[in-house]
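=== RUN LOG ===
request id: a7f3
mode: sequence -> structure
chains: 1
length: 370
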Amino acid sequence: MKKLLFISNITNSITNFVLPSYYACEKMGIEFHLASNLNNFDYENNPYKDIVLHNIKCNRNPLSFDNIYSYKELNRIIKENQIDYIHCNTPIGGVLGRLCASKNKLEKVIYTAHGFHFYKGAPLLNNIVYKNIEYALAHKTDAIITINNEDFHNANNMKLKKDGKVYKVDGVGIDVNSFFNVSYDKNTLKKTLCLSDDDYICIGIGRIESNKNFEETIESIYKTNDKRIKLLICGDGPLKRKCEKIVKKKNLEKNILFLGYRNDIPKLLKISNCYISLSKREGLPRSLMEAMAAGLPCIVSDIRGNNDLIKNGINGFLVNDSNECAEKINQLIHDESMSRKMQINNIRLIKNYDVEKVKKQIEEIYKKEL
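=== RESULT ===
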């Protein structure tokens, strides 16, 4: 039996990030191995017992010594388990996986770019260092899978191994129905969060760090000058305290709610009126797809990934700063027919990104490549 090693940075549970590849291997009779930082993995509730798990110290920080250890561990895993194929993901996993595949002369190496670190509008350092790294490693790659149009175009300019090919899939996929058909008590949930029926509820989801740019989102709420507007921030991260200070300085304590990590996102989306994300960089954002599946109008930064999903004025708005974001929030508040139109369009458009479709896309790629 052939064996495939799927490499990612950090995995707490088996999700749609992994499942399309797992199901493809299952159908093809390929033994599926997963190598990742599994320190917080929920082994007890893992239903996929036939996945062979390997815990490595992979770290998102490219300068971490953990990644040197991970490189050695991956080489050991490949040799001891007689791995035939590698499918690596994320920048660090992509570097480690392709170096190990080359060293061990594996049959095939596939790399999924969930968002190149070089992109339109990126810092100069990114567009020099990361770009050169990706172009160099492309020579060791049989297939590159991209999830947005900009990355697909960039990958097609790279020189892959002989007969190498670039593919595009629709992200990691989401279970569309689980966000559209949600069972919940709207009044009770709103009461729990001290929200009233007069509130216009915006929601932002993600790690509170520089890239997600929640400072700009808070500024947008301030600039609407409308006390009915409430922003739910779902997530945690290193810039939370900074954001809380901004909120206090602008007297927005009653308007901005820091909810921390939540396991009821589908319900929170359902009580919200619009979704906001002013991220600086994205691949194909899962949280935006979830908001679309919930039927929310979406106001997002005009960047790669976001503009693959949102068509300006059709199912949301693409904006460039907090002034534009505030303007669009106010526009949605006063134009219910536009909000309704965007809701209908999002529910229709998001069907293209259902996980079942992504499973089929990955399966077709595996059949061609493996």
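=== NOTES ===
DSSP finds 15 helices and 13 strands in the chain.
The longest strand covers residues 3-10.
=== END ===
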